[in-house]
Specification:
Blueprint: H1 4-56, H2 70-109, E1 113-114, E2 124-127, E3 133-134
Antiparallel strand pairs: 1-2, 2-3
Length: 138
């Protein structure tokens, strides 16, 4: 193995010299290519990209005032009327239920009120929640 060591050193020195020569030859050519690309090719590529972007770009429109269509307003009015109708039906049902319960309570209790005139005439009237006056025995 001692004979191979000097050969390896010679080979390493030769490789080192070859790499040095390759680098010294390549570096100026890369700089020249960079200068050429910057001065001639890059502006052309840049202009081509800008042209493509202009052709692809969507024209920006001024923001339009959003107006609701008559159909939208019709649906809104219909929804409000439906909600109002539902509320009216619920209120009417509760009123009828309350009146029926009041009438049943009066019939079960048999309560009557005397004449509002207070004349002692003995006529009995009963005014319910709804303001109806019922005759005795009814």
């Amino acid at each position: 193995m001692p004979l191979l060591a000097p050969a390896a050193q010679v080979a390493a020195a030769g490789a080192s010299k070859g790499i040095y020569n390759a680098r010294s030859w390549t570096a100026p050519r890369l700089e020249t290519a960079a200068d050429y690309t910057t001065s001639t090719l890059a502006p052309k590529v840049s202009e081509a990209l800008r042209t493509a972007a202009r052709q692809i770009r969507v024209e920006e429109e001024a923001p339009q005032k959003r107006t609701s269509s008559p159909l939208t307003w019709s649906f809104l009015v219909a929804a409000v009327l439906a909600a109002g109708g539902a509320v009216a039906v619920i209120i009417r049902q509760r009123y009828r239920t309350a009146m029926a319960a009041d009438t049943e309570e009066e019939a079960a209790a048999g309560t009557t009120a005397t004449s509002p005139a207070g004349d002692g005439s003995g006529s009995s009237t009963d005014a319910g929640v709804n303001g109806r006056v019922s005759a005795p025995g009814r």
